[in-house]
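// run 5 | inverse folding | seed 20
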């Protein structure tokens, strides 16, 4: 499990009737050479966590509020806290979150390495090569998940650009499991995309059952670790359970990736 990076002081929190406004208006502070990356983007923090999730789910449909708290605990993001204790974010915060999530998804980098890269960007390293947000679009219009965040089987097939029959096969094989009302969570799209890509190499759905079984064994292990926290009634304990589960899930996924890549290295000439 990665070790949290040292806390960065945010300074004293303003109090009084105008405290919320003072605490959330980062744009009121003059920009300096020491401004954290990304530069030139508004730091006026008025976005609630629900607003941030709605913006990020265009590109990262499975992101959750537990994930954001997890990244905050590792000091990769520092939302403003109002005197009432609510988190508020700015457009610059959202861009920083996109960078972290993209580095995890596309490059499988551990949080410690991502933190070091952010420190370099904060110190003034050239960010010309950092990609900006890649919004999913339909005919040039930003595509947003449904209000419920869940898709029908037809929606999964359409979003993943795979035949509806493939989604049906994945369900029959137990690789995909619909939730209430026969709808699927956001991960179903990625599973269908990967199943379609594997199918092009002759790996059909029946071969994917072992992937599902292995994933379930890992989830069972994670549930054993977080069970003591989930059994507590306090909000903080439940939030900690979500944070630990998120980190363990990422570590298991990275270990699986490393093992497969190591094995492929032995197979390739």
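// decoded
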């Amino acid at each position: 499990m990665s070790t949290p990076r040292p806390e960065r002081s945010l300074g004293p929190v303003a109090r009084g009737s105008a405290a919320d406004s003072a605490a959330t208006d980062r744009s009121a502070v003059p920009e300096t050479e020491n401004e954290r990356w990304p530069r030139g983007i508004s730091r006026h923090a008025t976005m609630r966590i629900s607003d941030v999730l709605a913006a990020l789910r265009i590109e990262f449909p499975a992101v959750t509020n537990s994930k954001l708290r997890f990244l905050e605990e590792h000091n990769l993001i520092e939302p403003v806290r109002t005197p009432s204790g609510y988190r508020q974010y700015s457009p610059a915060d959202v861009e920083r979150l996109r960078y972290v999530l993209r580095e995890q998804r596309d490059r499988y980098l551990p949080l410690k390495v991502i933190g070091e890269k952010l420190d370099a960007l904060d110190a003034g390293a050239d960010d010309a090569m950092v990609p900006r947000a890649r919004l999913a679009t339909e005919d040039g219009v930003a595509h947003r998940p449904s209000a419920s965040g869940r898709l029908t089987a037809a929606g999964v097939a359409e979003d993943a650009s795979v035949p509806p029959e493939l989604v049906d096969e994945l369900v029959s094989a137990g690789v995909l499991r619909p939730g209430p009302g026969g709808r699927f969570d956001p991960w179903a799209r990625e599973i269908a995309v990967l199943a379609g890509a594997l199918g092009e190499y002759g790996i059909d759905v029946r071969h994917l059952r072992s992937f599902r079984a292995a994933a379930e064994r890992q989830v069972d292990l994670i549930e054993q670790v977080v069970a003591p926290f989930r059994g507590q009634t306090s909000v903080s304990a439940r939030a900690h359970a979500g944070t630990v589960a998120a980190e363990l899930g990422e570590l298991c996924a990275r270990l699986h990736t490393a093992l497969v890549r190591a094995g492929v290295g032995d197979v390739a000439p």
